[in-house]
Amino acid sequence: MACTKSEKETTTEFELQFTQSWNGTPISSESLNSFQFQNEAGEKLSIERLRYLLSNIHLQLSNGTEIPLKAFHLVNLQKEESLKTNLTTFVTSKDIEAVSLLFGFDNEANQDGIYPDLNAVSWNVPKMLGGGYHFMQLDGKFENNAGELAPYNFHAIRAVDKSDPENLKFEDSFFEMEQSIESTTSRIRITIDMDISEWFVNPHLWYLESDATSLMPNFEAQKRIAANGKSVFSIQIESY
Amino acid sequence: MRYGVFILLLIGFLTACKKDDPGMVQGPTPYALEIPSLFSEKLITPVLPTNNPLTEEGVALGEKLFFDKRLSLDGNISCASCHLPQQAFSDRRAVSLGIRGQEGERNAMPIFNLAWNYDDRFNWDGKALSLEAQAFRPVTHPKEMGNTWVNVARTLQEDTVYPNLFEQAFGTYKIDSVVITKALAQFERTLISAQAPFDQFLLGQRNLTPRQENGLAIFMDEDRGDCFHCHGSENNPLWTDNDFHNNGLDTDFADLGLGAITGDPADNGKFRTPSLRNLTRTAPYMHDGRFQTLEEVVNHYSEGLNPSATIDPLMKKVNQGGVQLTAQDKADLIAFLRSLSDPNFGQGIGPGD
Predict the structure, then answer these.
(1) ipTM (interface pTM)
(2) Nearest-CB residue to A151 (from B116, B220, B313)
(3) How far apart are alpha carbons A23 and A25 in whole angstroms?
(4) Which residue, A114, A166, B162, B173, is the most exposed by fewest CB within 10 angstroms?
(5) Is the pLDDT of residue B116 over 70?
(6) Does B118 touch chain A (CB under 8 A)?
(7) pLDDT per residue over B166-192, tens digit each?
(8) Distance of CA A178 to CAs A19, A89, A181, Å?
(9) How far is B65 from chain A (nearest CA, A)?
């Protein structure tokens, strides 16, 4: 059924695009598997797999209320269909002040095994690490100091200190991002870009030589990943 | 208003008819797929194509066809010849024997829980893009059934029973490759395995042994087994991600796997992750059946990884040969893996059982 004029005036269509780049150069699934990247520490690397979770995607309205857009979205660079999603909300764009979202899940949402679509793609975190779900899987290979190709598994989860397995200690590693929206049109494109190179730079210069694998149970590594993540994402808003 | 009355009368007439009323036009009976509680709780709904819905008649026909050797050119090979029910629908041989005793090219994959393969890519190399498509190839493969679809259709058409069964299942007496593969796919979608001891543990019906508990911990520990990234966890009761990985079997590839299908060198040596269910009955292991025992499989991941350009980064200790498990850890890991085998799966399926 076609929208009536009054319906159109009270709805806003959103196109969410999830893009990826390396130091400003766009990358795609075509960019996978080749050693075309170099991190700030000077290590050459490839990317073979990139999946990450964004959650609690919502709008902030001028009257102070929040409108949910999507509970969570799993981006998989190898799955074209995951790189864009269209959503409609029953508010006019002039009432929208900003869009906000989280990298990963907050602690309330990060409950073990409760999302069948995430279970089905093996996105879970083992119970011995507190359960819940991955926030990111960035896998590939890098050239190590011995000149060998070595794997890296740059996986982000809720940071957990398991030095006492009977008494796990957690530190939040999800983080929020927000972008203001100034639009009066009924169709808005939100592009959320991940600059992958930033995971390895700021504030912690990352050496894959030192920290490449088994990062999930590494409490300090998870805290550093979360800190670096805060400069990874940028959000652009445009009317279309 | 008049139309409304007519529709009500029509509904009344139709609902008053009984199944065996003469002249009543009926379709096949919808098949009620029994989804295990662990699956319905943890997973999204299975892939059931709208153009091939499960029906009682279609599933029964598919089962009959699965065990019918007349699908092969010489009448000696059925689907079940290489996918034996007692072997969780896999084969004891590294590669199965087709007509005239010819060896096939890969290990016969077991058949269960296939309706939960969400990407709908089947075979070790992902060549078949649906279960229906998967059923297409073995019939005409020269090393498997070596037949032609025209010949198969003619053989079944001349049978005294089959035309009626196809009519009951698909509303047509005309038998062809489309309805045959649809029936086979329907049957295969009903093969569900979810009654392993570990399932019973998850349902609170039994405990794990200390060795199984330790094996599970190794499986889930990124510092030790790190099996869960590809094979799932208690939250993914399929025990596979159904994705494609190079797990370090070879440095040079005699079989390109997914790479031969996509043409992308980055996919060379990648094969679909098999489920870890029913391992006690699906030996030998890997796409070429190179490992006879679970001990050999675990040794491979522990010390036997081979580097290559496409080895999955999740094989993170490839430069040390593998994850270097202790003898005790290996034994315990295998104890856990065995707990994923359902001793009753496959029983009561097929003729004579």
Answers:
(1) 0.93
(2) B313
(3) 6
(4) A166
(5) yes
(6) yes
(7) 999 999 999 999 999 999 999 999 999
(8) 16, 18, 10
(9) 31
